[in-house]
Write a structure and sequence with these properties.
Layout (H helix, E strand, L loop, with lengths): L5 E7 L6 H12 L2 E5 L7 H4 L3 E8 L3 E5 L9 H5 L5 E2 L2 E2 L9 H5 L5 E5 L3 E8 L2 E8 L6 H18 L4 E8 L3 H7 L4 E6 L3 H16 L4 E6 L5 H13 L4 E5 L4 H7 L10 H16 L3
Parallel strand pairs: 1-10, 1-11, 2-9, 2-10, 11-12, 12-13
Antiparallel strand pairs: 3-8, 4-7, 5-6, 8-9
Helix pairs in contact: 1-10, 5-6
Length: 289
């Protein structure tokens, strides 16, 4: 990955920090990137890039239990051992079943079948700025780490096929499995944070994840001017850890206005746009584009 296509992943400790707005701006400014939305629980990069779906594919990762009554001897072991209380009158409630498979393993008659269910969909779309690979989980479904890996794999395939040198990935928030799946093999992680107490704490957690997996990280403080004190604390923490702060974007009401209009903020002439452009130049320098 590092020898060919380069990938920039935007992540954050929590949702709502502005990752998608910045990723959409980068998409407009790059002109030659494959775009990848790995926030499969709440993918919305397509909304500001006016994406047109070209391909739709099913994603199956979860399983549910089903009892075949013609085989069931009604011993009750499945009901007694089900931690989710999903089995009643020797039938499985699919809304309560978590697919752990205990009932299937314990059934002495082999009457319990684990069958695959639709977990979500993944898409290849066309945008004005380049191809976009994204996905959407069905309500209540999990296994998003697997779906994130699939989306990234397809984005890499498109980048190689179309001879594009860069993938811009809008990553998921937090520090869990989807984030880990988003980071592996990336050229850099751009951590988008806010100058708040929770932002300060979440930044620390995300930096530890990046360090653990050996992914170079840089920080952007969004809406830095709502609390100069906390912004200064974040910069000091980054300086102590030799983490570059490559961007400080001011609070700008034009950002939500652009989102409502379904377009990246960089299409508007405003303070946020000017800082996103400066940030993009520093990111390009960071990854030697």
């Amino acid at each position: 990955m590092r020898q060919g296509v380069k990938e920039i992943v935007l992540i954050s400790g929590k949702g709502g920090t502005g990752k998608t707005s910045i990723a959409g701006g980068f998409a407009m400014l790059s002109g030659d990137a494959v775009l990848c939305d790995c926030d499969v629980d709440a993918a919305n990069l397509e909304l500001i890039l006016n994406a047109e779906h070209l391909e739709t594919h099913e994603f199956q990762a979860s399983k549910k239990a089903r009892i075949h009554k013609d085989k069931c001897i009604e011993c009750g072991q499945c009901r007694e051992r089900c931690k989710f209380e999903a089995i009643h009158d020797f039938e499985v409630d699919p809304w309560s079943c978590e697919g752990c498979g205990v009932c299937s393993r314990l059934c002495p008659a082999g009457a319990v079948e684990m069958y695959p269910v639709l977990s979500g969909h993944w898409f290849v779309s066309r945008t004005d700025t380049g191809p976009l690979v994204h996905a959407r989980l069905e309500p209540g479904q999990e296994n998003s780490g697997k779906l994130v890996s699939l989306v990234r794999q397809k984005a890499r395939e498109i980048a190689k096929l179309e001879n594009r040198r860069l993938i811009i990935t809008d990553g998921p928030p937090g520090i869990g499995c989807p984030v880990i799946a988003s980071l592996s093999g990336a050229e850099m992680a751009l951590i988008v944070t806010e100058p708040t107490l929770s932002g300060f704490h979440d930044l620390d957690r995300v930096l530890k994840v990046c360090r653990h997996f050996g992914v170079p990280a840089a920080v952007c403080i969004n809406k830095y001017d709502i609390s100069p004190e906390h912004s200064g604390e974040i910069e000091a923490k980054c300086w102590e850890r030799d983490i570059p702060v490559v961007g400080k974007i001011p609070y700008d009401e034009n950002v939500p206005k652009a989102m409502v209009q379904g377009m990246p903020v960089v299409k508007l002439d405003c303070p946020a746009t000017r800082e996103v452009r400066r940030l993009w130049e520093k990111v390009k320098e960071f990854v030697s584009l």
